[in-house]
Amino acid sequence: MTKLFEAPLYPYRRSPDQDAPAPVRHPVVVIGAGPVGLAMAIDLAQADVPVVVLDDNDRVSVGSRAICFSKRSLEIFDRLGCGDEITDKGVVWNVGKVFFGDRQVYDFNLLPEQGHKRPAFINLQQYYCELYLVERIRALQAEGKPVEIRGGNKVANLDARADHTLVTVETVEGAYNVEADWLIACDGAGSPSRRMLDLDFVGRVFEDNFLIADVIMKADFPTERWFWFDPPFNKDQSALLHKQPDGVWRIDLQLGWDIDKEKEKKPENVIPRLKEMLGPDVEFDLEWVSIYTFQCRRMEKFRHGRVIFAGDSAHQVSPFGARGANSGFQDADNLGWKLKLVLDGKAPDSLLDSYAFEREMAADENILQSSRSTDFITPKSEISRIFRDAVLDLSEHYAFARPLVNSGRLSVPCIYDRSPLNGPDVPGLPARTRPGSPAVDAPFGGAWLLEALGGGFKLLGLGIEVPETLELQGVTLAGINAPADSVSQEVRDRYLGDTAAAVYLIRPDQHVAARWASFEAAAVDAALARTLGKQGETR
User: Fold this and answer.
1) What is the pLDDT of residues 79-129, one digit of tens each?
2) Core vs surface per residue 215-249: b (16+ CB within 10 A) or e
3) Contact status, residue 121 vs residue 410, Cβ threshold 8 Å
4) What per-residue confidence (pLDDT) applies to 362?
5) CA atoms of 334 and 194, how far apart (whole Å)
6) If we measure between CA atoms, which residue out of 356, 340, 347, 348 comes closest to residue 307?
7) Residue predicted with more confidence, 380 or 11
8) In this predicted structure, what is the pLDDT of residue 269?
9) Global model pTM greater than 0.90
10) Which fold is adopted by the domain 431-531?
11) Residue 329: C-alpha distances to residues 237, 298, 371, 502 (Å)
């Protein structure tokens, strides 16, 4: 049987651009049909922004690669129109367990409170995620949306100019050129785009190696994240186990510093390691094996004129904490609505600088957490190991020590506290929904709050009536009203606290832009101008 990642999904087809007498101009060109590039294309296409995706490949990625998709990513997938498909296929989990040696020291629940549509995480092979994103693009194409994926189209050169980028593309039928008003580079950690433009990518490379194995087997392990420090089957190292769909299990085994990578990837060396972990009687097949080295790096700037970087091309972290792909989806979520406004002439292109500011801040947060996780997992001195092991011993019996254990601080969305787009706040309202924070889901009107918010700018009135529509700054705000007596307890706890009423301005990426104790159109207008990057401009 042909595996999903072995079959062409978007095979090469000759484009009319290849026969044009001069380079054809496109509003947006995305380089890379990985998860972030595909999500970016969907977001733009849904907003009727014409977008072309270029990729030298023609199929989904081999192996599980990114497998842990966070609650925030699932909420983004909902807005992209494929949240149900991805969640239904994935393995849902909220609980993680930490082991030290041969004993469990504690467990944790990443979503202990009720009243959320989506779970804390699902596990899903990256190739399935890419498949559902491509299928969503096909559905959009059937609706007449302006989106195209060109497989077998390798970007060979970039010439960044003042008002566009000239892109040279190689195919089996020869090279051709296109022009992009805006170019979005989503071409991975090795980013050819970054190299073509001679841009930096600096940070820290950790001298340690992990074996990744996708194993097909029948096992009774629960759908939880299991992490071992110094297990009997991998002494003085660490290990990680995740369940995936189709009977596939992801196993990560720390190997150490000085290894022969090609030798360690050979089945005759991998299988004995796995048998030692799983037991001699467990039957399994290897689907995919790889070895990775930790890297925590980012570009100094994510925007370079009309070229913008997103996902692994802009930042890279270690796999612990599931901060790579999940952060990339948030990049796309942040950039899409801003680029739409700029293209429509409703915001200055300086608004795109806020993408760089906010997502560079998020990258710094992810790199900090990822670096700390890696240092804890792979201590570089004997004294570091002694302290780490003492923390693990204490965590078995004392709750105070458990937050000190760091097997990978799992991905959470960044709160843009210092964003120049943030408007006013009201003292006394819950901190978790302050300006800059992502909106928190809750039961709402018989469904879910994030469903009601959807995309676009929203004005949420809780116990205060707001207009159904409001035209400000050339933008339409849709009003959502919830009388005080209809507000669920979860909404009250997450958005009102001890306050009777409030008004929230919500961005298209569902981050809170501003909030007030009452509704005043002039105040909303001023806050919206700020959120559009038009500081000081009011009606």
Assistant:
1) 999 999 999 999 998 899 999 999 999 999 988 899 999 999 999 999 999
2) beeeeeeeeebbbbbbbebbeebbbbbbbbeeebb
3) yes
4) 93
5) 21
6) 356
7) 11
8) 92
9) yes
10) Glutaredoxin (3.40.30)
11) 31, 16, 21, 30
Which single residue is written with the structure tokens 């842990």?
68
For residue 340, is it left (φ>0), alpha (ψ between -120 and 50) or beta?
alpha
Q: Is pLDDT of 234 > 80?
A: yes
177-193 residue pLDDT tens: 999 999 999 999 899 99
Which one, of 69, 247, 250, 248, lies nearest residue 239 by Cα? 250
Q: Where are the domains of the chain?
A: 4-92+122-202+297-367, 431-531
Each residue of 308-336: pLDDT tens digit? 999 999 998 877 767 778 999 999 999 99
More confident residue, 376 or 524: 524
| Dihedral (CA of 441, 445, 446, 451) sign | negative
How far is residue 519's CA from residue 517's CA, in Å, rounded to a whole number?
Answer: 7
- DSSP secondary-structure letter at 188? -
Residue 68: how many other CB atoms lie within 10 Å = 27
Sequence-separated (6 or more) residues with CB below 8 Å from residue 514: 422, 423, 424, 425, 435, 504, 505, 524, 527, 530, 531
User: Cβ distance 503 to 460 under 8 Å?
Assistant: yes
Please give the single-letter amino acid code of residue 109. N
Q: Is the CB of residue 482 less than 8 Å from the CB of residue 429?
A: no
* pLDDT value, residue 67: 86
Tell me the C-alpha distance between 273 and 262, whole Å: 15
How far is residue 507's CA from residue 295's CA, in Å, rounded to a whole number?
32
Rounded CA separation 274/215 (Å): 9
Reduced to 3 states, what is the DSSP secondary structure of residue 70?
A: strand
Q: Report the candidate in 56, 96, 127 with the shortest Cα–Cα distance to residue 288.
A: 127
Determine how β-strand 475-482 pairs with β-strand 458-462. parallel
**What local confidence, expressed as pLDDT, does residue 2 receive?**
54
- What dotted CATH number matches 4-92+122-202+297-367? 3.50.50.60
Look at residues 483, 410, 353, 506 and name the one whose alpha carbon lies nearest to residue 110.
410
160-177 pLDDT per residue, tens? 999 999 999 999 999 999
Beta bridge partners of 216: 248, 285
Q: Residue 378 — very low, low, confident or very high, per pLDDT cuts 50/70/90? A: confident
Beta bridge partners of 286: 215
Strand ranges across the sheet with 248-256: 103-109, 95-100, 225-229, 238-243, 248-256, 202-217, 284-298, 315-316
